[in-house]
Amino acid sequence: MAIDSGQIWTSGDERPSAAVAYGANGMVASASPSAAAVGLGVLQRGGNAFDAALAVAGVEWFNLPASCGLGGDIFAVFYDANNDRIGALNGSGEVARRASRDYYVSQGYGTMPLAGWHAAAVPGAAHGYLTLHRELATMPLADLWAPALRYAREGVAVTDKIHRVIAGSADKLGQFPDSAEVYLPGGAAPKVGSRWRNPGLARTIEAVIEGGADAFYRGEIAKEMVPRPRPGAVCSGSTSSPSSAPSCTTRSA
């Protein structure tokens, strides 16, 4: 979607399109039209590209459920026009402090597991988003994530794409009670046209807006994600905090 003399132009729906969009005053790219529209609204209200990116990301947590959310990682390459600098942010998740090759071998693994507690890393996304907001954004985070919070509370209309993405991972999501409750209500992927909500994500968004990184990594959210030590587990409530913030490096353009 692009802005040109007050008009909004789109290159198509959620499916990839060969059409090219142009805009004289701004542009937002997303695989979700709803997310792109939210980003354009931010630009039209005077926000900068980083404000728009943060708002778009929040909506994508719902409309692109196979993409990373607050529980994943974030990477960014950016240009800061105000300071004429090029920068990169590495918000990759840290490995659990107790993880080692010997540990996984002792648990019977010959290769790295791809699901469950043994595959989990400390998420870097929450701290990464907050770092971008602190360093480069101009609008309050509560305003930027208001659409995401509304979607989480009130729900979104399930598209065929959302249904197919969740249904395609139903076997894996169904292995764990928490993911099954959110993504497989009633034991199956949300039906096309139904309303899909995530009140747990709404509480998380609110907590991060109000309490920052500590609310996610050291507060009630961390305690809920890792409520008690598990025998032999690489994660515990005392190891859920990152030992370092996402790194952000810059150089003059």
Any overview of this molecule?
- The protein has about 250 residues and is of the alpha+beta class.
- The chain has one domain (about 1-155, about 195-250).
- The chain has 11 helices and 8 strands.
- The strands form 3 sheets. The protein has a 3-stranded antiparallel beta sheet with strand order 2-1-3, covered by helices on one side.
- Strand 4 (about 75-80) and strand 5 form a beta hairpin.
- It is globular.
- Mean pLDDT is about 85; it is low at about 5-15 and about 240-245.
Topology readout:
Layout: E1 2-4, E2 7-9, E3 26-27, H1 33-44, H2 49-63, E4 74-80, E5 85-91, H3 101-106, H4 125-136, H5 141-144, H6 146-154, E6 156-157, H7 160-168, H8 170-173, H9 177-183, E7 195-196, H10 199-217, H11 220-225, E8 247-252
Helix pairs in contact: 1-2, 2-6, 6-10
Q: What would you say about this model in short?
A:
The protein is an alpha+beta fold.
Q: Could you give a short account of the major beta sheet?
A: 3 strands, antiparallel
How many individual domains?
Answer: 1
Number of strands: 8
Strand order of the largest sheet: 2-1-3
Structural descriptors:
11 helices, 253 residues, three-stranded antiparallel beta sheet, alpha+beta, single chain, 41% helix
